[in-house]
């Protein structure tokens, strides 16, 4: 039954037919979408199993700790495919982000063996790795007996993959030759512009070309549209305020968070004339065109205001803009996307990134079986499923971004999204210096930014105080 259709799917899996040709052929054969999907999943599983012993750990059990997120939803929706492929049973706990990272820290710091693998951000591994809480995944990635030959480690975007690897030395370069792969990138977020196309048209403005232009455009939008504010950026007293738009623009001016001396000592780098000029302009933009209660703004407030039509644009995560352009959001279908280079002399956007990643607990009772899950969840087959069937919108594999169906899906409802990715991907990476005081430094930085916006301290004076405080903390920790 379905022999011709199976032959067509087999030809696709061998690379003899592209995905568009396969779908066209299945449609011409009169195969219903549900039946075609079931047949394709079955044959994909068979093809995977033909090249690798996926059943080596059949009968074992794993437990995952997951953050409530569309990327986790995509994995859960496809989890039966992993169970069928491997015979491994997988259970999971899911928590909302406001408590999730506390759950992870509690589990790891106590040495609990309850969870085998978990979602994490790359920044968090700068604490987890040196503490001995997570495994260096190079042991498995580089072992051909334990890794599917079609896993294709080189398919990962270089800047993203390298940002998940660190040698554990404070100030050590991410992705260095001696780096440990503390986590596997799963999906990431570039920080660029999402904007309301109708508002831009009404105000007769074009996309901002640099930071000075963004300040002007945001002010005009706010003045001409009325009842809205010009631009949304995060403002709460948290590391999460510094890492998205703010640091992406800052890094585009070739500015750094920390200096690393020849002998490995760290010192604050925010006191340069260029840094002070950038801070002054960013603060001006928030004061003139940001939300009135900016200092309370998190990812959630920035996104919901855009989706509700309360703001004209955001300088934040591209996937945040993606989610606001759908569902029951008031502005669904009205948003557009663009790469943004804050520095007029820069040749391209260089966004700092957040990377949702997968890590293995060092306390897992069966690390080899856990690695089977990690390589499946970060593999090309699942990535394609998530990208085309679910909202796995920022995959970390080059091959997925080349997939015609995925690109058409984005082009159809998310104008400019593909072009934004193409313009930014080469420069996308984590711009912070890895070191154990990361959260202390960035939280104090955000607090200083709040004081500047509230006019409690002049920009130059505020940065001088910040540099002095950070240097003192680094010296007390033996890092400076």
Please sum up the structure shown:
With 480 residues, the chain is of the alpha+beta class. It contains 23 helices and eleven strands. Helix 1 (3-13) crosses helix 3 (33-51).
Oligomer: single chain
Return the structural class.
alpha+beta
The biggest beta sheet reads: 7 strands, mixed
- Radius of gyration of CA atoms, rounded to a whole number: 23 Å
Beta-sheet strand percentage? 5-15%
| Poorly predicted segments | 32-36
Distance between the termini: 70 Å
Overall residue-averaged pLDDT value: 93
Total beta strand runs: 11
Descriptive labels:
seven-stranded mixed β-sheet; 48% helix; 23 helices; two-stranded antiparallel sheet; 480 residues
Write up what this structure looks like.
The protein has 23 helices and eleven strands. It is of the alpha+beta class and 480 residues long. Strands 1, 2, 3, 6, 9, 10 and 11 form a seven-stranded mixed sheet that branches. Strands 4-5 form a two-stranded antiparallel ribbon. The protein has a two-stranded antiparallel sheet with strand order 7-8. Helices cover 48% and strands 12% of the residues.
What order do the helices and strands come in, and which of them pair?
Elements: H1 3-13, H2 19-28, H3 33-51, E1 61-67, H4 70-77, H5 79-86, E2 89-95, H6 97-109, E3 117-121, H7 125-128, H8 138-141, H9 158-163, E4 165-166, E5 180-181, E6 184-196, H10 197-203, H11 211-225, H12 239-242, H13 245-252, E7 258-260, E8 266-268, H14 273-289, H15 299-308, E9 313-317, H16 318-324, E10 335-338, E11 353-360, H17 367-377, H18 380-389, H19 398-401, H20 404-413, H21 417-424, H22 438-453, H23 459-476
Helix pairs in contact: 1-2, 1-3, 10-11, 11-14, 15-16, 22-23
